[in-house]
From TrEMBL:
Taxonomic superkingdom: Eukaryota
PANTHER family per UniProt: MITOCHONDRIAL BASIC AMINO ACIDS TRANSPORTER-RELATED, SLC (SOLUTE CARRIER) HOMOLOG
Stated name of the protein: Mitochondrial carrier
Key words, A-Z: Membrane, Mitochondrion, Repeat, Transmembrane, Transmembrane helix, Transport
Stored SUPFAM superfamilies: Mitochondrial carrier
Assigned GO CC terms: mitochondrial membrane
A GO term for molecular function: transmembrane transporter activity
Organism taxonomic ancestry: Eukaryota, Fungi, Fungi incertae sedis, Mucoromycota, Mortierellomycotina
Protein source organism: Linnemannia hyalina
Length: 358
């Protein structure tokens, strides 16, 4: 039941997740030669118009496959960490009567945050390859040149599936390639899950939800607590998520066979540094000239790969300003509430049933 509910949450949240990732990757400082109208102005309607309804669910296979492992590691690590803290630092005897009646002692919220932090570190083993494949599958089609041949566009779209992306990464970089951006993913997940569990447990206590009670008014309280916890978690680590997406979707890491082998129309050929005749727009897109926007931020773009997350953050800021680190935050936060409300509620249902069996 938990897996099915998780998949349902992924499906419901997929359109907003695709939009979030495309907004994050938009205009990245690693540079691309040409971009489609949908890439310049990503929106749900533009995605459907340019790529069809399937574009709203791009990359969803990867998190669906990894969901069972991810949630298993997450909640198992969290529960094990809480048991460890219970042994080394037993909860205080000043337990609220509501929980004492259920025979449950409360641990400090600092322990809850620490347990969530540990769970986030453990999750990176699954979340990094899952996120990498998902993000690349979601942005490949957005980087289509709209003036390229129909054959080229069809071939590139065929390479934007999760399975094809996975095979391409392993073929070109080996299994280690699936962990590109692993450090920033861990730095995102660890505090993110710490806030996740801290907010949820704090809200449960504040709303006075009895342990193991999931029916009646408690259903809505649990859904509210889970939704708010997910939203706060995403808000707390969102800039790191932007950096992670940009590191994992750099053009040189996700070049497709179709882009390398199929011809485009004469006006749509992708320029290279050795091209003798470059249009002004292509020169600017390649980052071969220096411009300054109205806010005074440098718009110099370089096709050189990022050296790491610090380099990515600095170059993104210099070219696009501080706002770049919150790009795509609106769809991300809108998606976070329903998805995490369902996730935590199902977790509570399962735990309640397990306690009855014991």
């Amino acid at each position: 039941m938990g897996y099915i509910s998780g998949v349902a949450g992924l499906i419901i949240g997929s359109p907003l997740d695709v939009l979030k990732v495309r907004l994050q990757a938009q205009g990245d400082a690693s540079g691309t030669a040409t971009r489609s109208q949908g890439a310049r102005n990503p929106s749900l309607s533009a995605m459907v118009q340019n790529e069809g309804i399937k574009s709203l669910f791009k990359g969803i296979s990867s998190p669906i496959v990894g969901l069972a492992g991810l949630n298993s590691i997450l909640f198992a690590s969290y529960s094990a960490s809480m048991r460890f803290f219970e042994v080394v630092a037993p909860p205080s005897s000043t337990t609220p009567s509501l929980y004492a009646a259920a025979g449950e002692a409360l641990q400090p919220l600092s322990h809850v945050f620490a347990a969530g932090f540990v769970a986030g570190v453990a999750c990176f083993l699954v979340s990094t390859p899952t996120e990498l494949v998902k993000c690349r599958a979601q942005v490949i089609a957005s980087r289509l040149d709209p003036t390229s041949s129909a054959a080229a566009q069809k071939a590139i779209l065929s390479e934007s599936g999760s399975w094809h992306v996975t095979k391409d990464v392993i073929r070109r970089f080996g299994l280690r390639g699936l962990y590109q951006g692993g450090l920033v993913t861990m730095l995102r997940d660890a505090p993110g899950y710490g806030v996740y569990f801290l907010a949820y447990e704090g809200l449960k206590r504040g709303l006075e939800i009895p342990a193991g009670e999931t029916g009646g008014i408690n259903t809505w309280k649990l859904l509210f607590a889970g939704g708010v916890a997910g939203t706060l978690s995403w808000a707390s680590i969102y800039p790191l998520d932007v950096i992670k997406t940009r590191l994992q979707t750099q053009p040189h890491l996700m070049s497709t066979d179709a882009l390398r082998t199929l011809p485009t129309t004469a006006t749509a050929r992708i320029p290279t540094p050795s091209t003798s005749l470059l249009s002004k727009s292509h020169i600017e897109a390649r980052g071969l000239v220096h411009q300054t926007n109205r806010q005074g931020h440098s718009k110099t773009l370089s096709s050189a790969p990022y050296k790491g997350m610090v380099d990515c953050a600095i170059r993104s800021y210099k070219s696009e300003g501080m706002g770049v680190f919150m790009r795509g935050a609106t769809p991300a936060l809108l998606r976070a509430f329903p998805v995490n409300a369902v996730t935590f509620f199902v977790y509570e249902l399962v735990m309640a049933e397990l306690q009855k069996l014991e």
